Records
---
Amino acid sequence: MIPGTIAELSKALRSRQLSAVELTESVLGRIATLGPALNAFITVDPEGARAAAQAADARIAAGAADPLTGIPVAHKDVLMTAGLRTTCGSRMLEKFTAPYDAFVVAGLKKAGAVQVGKTNMDEYAMGSSNETSYFGPVKNPWNLDYVPGGSSGGSAAAVAARLVPAATGTDTGGSIRQPAALSGICGIKPTYGVCSRYGLIAFASSLDQAGPFAQTAEDCALLLNAMAGHDARDSTSLPRPGEDYTRLLREAAGAKPLAGLRIGLPKEYFGTGNDADVAAAMDAAIAEFRALGATTVDVTLPNVNLSVPVYYVIAPAEASSNLSRFDGVRYGHRAEKYTDLLDMYRKSRAEGFGAEVKRRILVGTYVLSHGYYDAYYLKAQQVRRLIAESFRHAYERCDVIAGPTAPSAAFRIGAKSADPVQMYLNDIFTVAANLTGAPAISIPCGFDRNGLPIGLQLQGDYFAEAQILNVAHRFQQATDWHKRAPTLAGKTGSLPPEGAE
Amino acid sequence: MAKWEVVIGLETHAQLSTAAKIFSGASTAFGAAPNTQASAVDIALPGVLPVLNKGAVERAIRFGLAVGGTINRRSVFARKNYFYPDLPKGYQISQYEIPIIAGGGIDIVSPTRGPIRISLTRAHLEEDAGKSLHEDFHGMTGIDLNRAGTPLLEIVSEPDLRSSEEAVAYAKTLHALVQWIGICDGNMQEGSFRCDANVSVRSADTEKLGTRAEIKNLNSFRFMHDAIEFEVRRQIELIQDGGSVVQETRLYDPDRGETRSMRSKEDAQDYRYFPDPDLPPLVIADEWVARVKSEMPELPEAMQHRFEEQYALPAYDAVMLTQTREMADYFERSAADFNGPAKLVANWVLGEISSGMNRYNIEIDRVPISSHQLADLLNHVHDQTISATTAKGFSETAWIEGFPSDLDAEIERKGLAQISDAGAIDKIIDDVLAANPAIVAEFRAGKEKAFNSLVGKAMAASKGKANPAQVNAALKKKLGR
């Protein structure tokens, strides 16, 4: 394995110490050996990857390289990748080949990143543990009996296990940040509208955003630079001028790089529901921020406790409508035998969708239905507004908000799948940023008693990506949680040790 | 039937004449091979998103201004959810709670109530579905998505109409208007203009509306009339027999001349409308409305009044000439080039030109005599170069062989110049009088019509070239009148 962050690998590639072809072969080898145990990938494209690597080398030789040229990247299987199977983790699209590239995929291609394959995910991005995939659950590289988080579990596991230095995910209720936390890596959800949703198979249209996974905040910033941008094909894409998300990272640091920064600590995030190890990790992280010069401010987010019920009305509602196109008529799974149109619809969708997807379609249909719309959907949208107001008030007194990404570290596969509502409560700290549309990042900040990673979430006001990336970066300059990788040693169910490839 | 009142409201879907679809860039041109004009967005591939076509909005604004409605400065697109194979997304993007246009009205002439104004409830933008073709596929249905995504303006009238005749008058007026302002080509055969009628009956002394039935598939004015008539009779008979009208959708079957129930309990279809999160609210700036207003063509009614004033035309002529904007423009261009009174041009447009259009079933843009050529022809009559009869001859020939490119040369070539020479006319008349002693005798005996007959003979003898006024005068003189 060729270790390194994107920043390190990029330097090595551009100084010709390493070729893109070598790096890609190393990645493909590692995926082949270790990928199956994690079940992180649904599709691997060695031919496409090799061709892209060769092109990247040519570009580097010509002196036309970008920071991402030659860097292998894996895409969550919710993103359309031209010519490559795109399944959404579902039987419905098991045999579907995408005819076009998603905007974020094209952006990374343009930067010269080497696309290696599609990662496993909760079906249709609905889940917090990557246990609902038609292609089987993904395993947490830190302990194969545990979940990596979801819905972007495959991407998170792939980066955590150092199969790839870069991966994309999507975040509707926390599906980048929570798996980043549970798998011990970095993941950021940008402000809604910063990354075009064109080619992102829609789950909840007003909540979905694509974003990067990587080992460091700096790497995430490099990836975000290639993924962000205005797209005329997405009417919710914001027509803002281009931004360099690394710009604050390059500024000279003093001893107190976070001097002047006010970090808000909402009392609602530090309650008794948190695991003790999570609470301890938070305390240590906050102490570190103070050491770096930041001050902390106690804030309150009065309506944030309503985030989960609001989310679980709005997201299923939009999903119930977004998933109607999967009807067996034009593409996707169609039942083999049916008696008439209605039978065809019923069988195709019953066979094509898994239980969690069906559950959410039912809930979503219900809350939009006549007689219930006002009490559920409309009310949820109104409360959503109130939640956004809470954050607005808080940002009058602080610059960023910190807290745990999830109430506990990873749990065992199967531990929470019996009770959907228990599963939904995993999102308790993350969904608000989707409801408000504000940016948020998760970075590793410790481990629990079982050796499983704990994540710290930093939230910013709208368009504060560069700022929260910088806060995360300065934390990572002073700590080394982000450098920890699973040891891949000996226990039953763990990955084989390094060198045994 | 005197104690029954009929209440009708019309819902019209007008396809807006944009080149591209309302939410995708695919072409809206009619007649292409199936599924060749359906983009990724139109076939609802995973991951695609709608992008609003501003041309559709502009046409809706134009409509709102033309009917005196309110242009809502903020309107919202909503999803109407239902499953059908010709609806690729499983929902139609429409507008629900907040449409782009509210209110407005259409003036019609009711055969029973005279000039009345039919109020509009609203008009909103939405996308059309694809087509389901049930024949030709051996028990299966073919789906053509070319039409999916074509922009529609759904125009909803208040239930102000009280008869099938009024409904047809409203539909015809609306049909002419959307073409007039250039937002819809009005081609009913191609499905550009589709009407559904909501029909109910009630006792003439009640305020409460009866239960209504919706009749779909009325793709001609004739069918609309017949369908409504049948439905009214059906509902009245039903109530008189002690039954009650069910709220349902019915289809008109023109072969049997009856309406038939299309859906029953599925009419309680719950579309679960909610604002489409893929599209921001449509915000229309005052400047946009002002610009559209400044570019609006003169509307038919205003033009009618102007024609009466400017061209000294009777109201009937003004109304007939403003049936379509193309005809009104033709008339005006011709009148501008004509040296005589515009009334003469009007007579020709409503006479010769219109009858040719009817006979050959063509629109005014395909008439073989241009407005300029018509003016030229009439100028030649006005300055006595040719007679009115000769001019008519040119007109008739034009429909078969086209209009001569050089009128003067043609007149010369065929020797059609009007005979205005007094001597020549005298000669013609002398010959006619000599050849028709019986008619002369009738005239002398007091039969006035004999005079006209002799005029006719003289015109015929001159092959229509004699100056009719001079023939008249000379004949009078010779007969001692």
---
Amino acid sequence: MKVLTLNCGSSTVKYKLIDTESQVNIATGKVERIGMIGASLELKVPDGRKVLREVEILDHVMAINAILKILAEPKVGVLKDLDEIDAVGHRVVHGGETFSGSVLITDRVVQTLKDNIQLAPLHNPPNIQGIEAAMALLDVPMVGVFDTAFHSTIPEHSFIYPIPYQLYKKYAIRRYGFHGTSHRFVSQRACEMNGHDCKNRTMITIHLGNGASMAAIRNGKSVDTSMGFTPLEGLVMGTRCGDIDPAIILHIMRQEKLSLHEADNLLNKFSGILGISGRSSDMRDIEELYFAGDKQAHLVINIYAYRIKKYIGSYFAVLNGVDYIVFTAGIGENSPLIREKSLEGLDHLGILLDKKKNDEVVGQEAVISAKDSATKVLVVPTNEELVIALDTADIVSRLKK
Amino acid sequence: MRIQKIGVVGCGTVAQGIALNIAHAKLEVIMYDETENWLKEGLAGIELTIDNEISRWGLTPADKKAIMSRISTTMKMRDLKDVQILIEAKGRSLEEKAKIFMDMEAICHDTTIFMTNTTTIGVTDIQKQLMFPERIIGLHFILPVHKSIIVEVIKGIHTTEDVVKTTKFLMDTLGKKSIEVYEYPGFVTTRIIMPMINTAAHVLLEGLASAEDIDRAINLGYNITQGPLAMADEMGIDVALTYLDSIYKQLGDPSYRPCPLFRKMVREGRLGVKSGQGFFKYDKMKRRIQNS
């Protein structure tokens, strides 16, 4: 089945066309600067060919239309006819409490997403615009795959915050967790790599991208995760602070007379790696400084890795022992330093890294723990689009039956 | 209507705020004014506002780059011919505003919507001098424009409902709540706030309390984020004086008769934030110097 996956932001649409039988990417690309002067359309095919055009794209309908046109364009495209697209899979950030798995998109689903907008005011509106635009242009089944869905199995004692319970009832304030598609993919892949399914296995998955989160997984199901009501909680991230004492922000707001918007920006855009380093939000820059002996970069790396270590410890307790620890996403896949620092001194928990192996592994699947490590440590590159495509194919093929 | 490009006539404090607000909402904006120097100062003012925002985490350096890339300037009115909406924030009198719009009518498409930022000048009075009076509408922004979320929308007698609708849509896009008001001196906001500012100046003149304490009393006593004297500094002492004079002339209500302190301050060049000193003192970054 040929599935087009779409990831719609407010002014961008990222897409991938995937053959789900062979699990091969047929084409990838993006539209940027939607609604602005100088909008661009990009198409990349696996043989290395790349097309980049400046086009007038005023909204998501025009963006998706441009994507469809270029995919089927005689000289540069990869499809003879748009009929070859069997289904569309949409990444949706927030499914709220309604969606515990991927769903076939109907008018009712779209309405429910609209009802949930207040939970993800930045992300869900463009997701919905993308869905409506695709529905207007293509007459094929569409599936929504939610970032929150994988964490819907988290038990109540973990997702309820210790604040007045009525706030949960009134505003659905609870832990939702994000990066679910990635945690799900790498946890399953880790089991496959070891030749069994996820039953009776416990693992900790560590997704370290610009945003970062961890999940505690038992029997293939998420039982806890570090991100919470929003993607701000948990680990130290590129520009987000992760866990801090909530009273700090109230204090700063009072001292600096900050507005809600400024306080929100302070925590989401000026904190984390950027906030501590004062120089960059990119871990690659910080590592470069670290190896050059920069003191502040050492502090960043230590804080970053220490937070991961603390979560590993707490998830060890949650899971009562861990079979696998899986690193994924930009930093998780490519930074031996962060992996080493995060696992340093955990030998009492039975975690022993093969230092040489760890240093060698960059951006590829591998086991990096020592042979006598009780917990296996793996690196598994994530592939969220593939999960979206496979879920879509699965739901659509059942529909056909 | 898909709005992509907006023209702004003027590059003073209000015009800077409008341009910044538009560019931050991801729309293209072209600013017109008569001299290169004014435009340069206008752009520098916008950059300074953004830098202040960055220093208090309101905007990021990436936001600054994106915002500045969407703002262009020109000294040729003709360069505004293709904008869909034109916002004027330059004319200080009815004559100046009418002249700008008459000139723009000769340049812009018939469908271009004209908006004028006005506090005391009537939209209908401007309409009387135009060929297509139905397309002009009044806006009253509150300073600082990029932060205040309220805009008063003033319909002239000939303004069409379509123009009102597009105006409200644009204000939504800019993240502002619009309230529709009738044409009347000072509309709602200026009409209500000016007697308080005027009284605060009288209280200071009469020696009841220091400027600091007057503002603190109102600020903390009534939970108003800014005291009346700081508000006047932000507005510009000369501008506050113009508002008071104009409303007093039109309504005859003595609560708008300007406190003599305003004229004295204008004579001395103490114009508020923009001159570095008004009721309080300000540094080069336009930040209040404490205990001033």
